[in-house]
Specification:
5-stranded antiparallel beta sheet, elongated, alpha+beta, 9 strands, 187 residues
């Protein structure tokens, strides 16, 4: 009789843990990117665009583009519109594999990171860096207004709250189970 009660209490505790911990594991995911994962490009992109499944905010230095040889591209001021992050880049370097490393803050307050890999099949043309400052100057007035929504998207429940609720719920189930076991006469 006792094993049946104990297994019932354990089952109830595990069910409570799964139900309460479920929301804590939900994070935004990268839905698409430009350049796309695994893309082979003949011309270097002038910007990187990342689209997430929910609105995000940005920590300092959220985007980095690095070649296999370790050379980093110059990255401009990022703009956020809901779940879309756009950042101008000034490419430099030879034809090789490149990695976009990104980090964002999800709606629930957790930091989320990832990478996108692409390949340039031709070296960056020398005219690209000269054209990029003009493009950066044209986009810089738009950057402050585009970046403003990032501060509005910081609402959400932090993960530590969900963990705390899960732990308290699990402890409550365990305490109730122990009280039921102690209160019953032994067979």
């Amino acid at each position: 009789m006792i094993p049946r009660r104990v297994s019932g209490a354990v089952l109830a505790a595990l069910t409570g843990l799964v139900v309460l911990a479920g929301p804590a594991s939900a994070h935004t995911e990268l839905e698409s990117s430009s350049p796309a994962e695994g893309a082979a490009l003949g011309t270097a992109p002038s910007q990187v665009e990342l689209t997430f499944g929910e609105p995000v905010t940005l920590p300092p230095d959220p985007i980095e583009v690095t070649g296999r040889d370790g050379v980093s591209w110059q990255v401009g001021a990022p703009a956020v519109a809901g779940g879309v992050v756009t950042v101008p880049v000034t490419p430099s370097g030879p034809a090789q594999a490149y990695t976009v490393t990104w980090k964002v803050v999800a709606k629930d307050g957790d930091n989320v990171t990832g990478t996108v890999h692409f390949t340039l099949t031709a070296p960056v043309a020398s005219a690209a860096p000269a054209a990029a400052p003009g493009a950066a100057a044209a986009s810089s007035p738009a950057a402050p207004t585009s970046a403003a929504p990032a501060t509005l998207d910081s609402a959400g429940i932090p993960t530590w709250v969900w963990v705390l609720v899960s732990v308290v719920g699990l402890l409550a189930v365990i305490v109730v189970g122990i009280r039921q076991l102690r209160g019953r006469p032994k067979d």
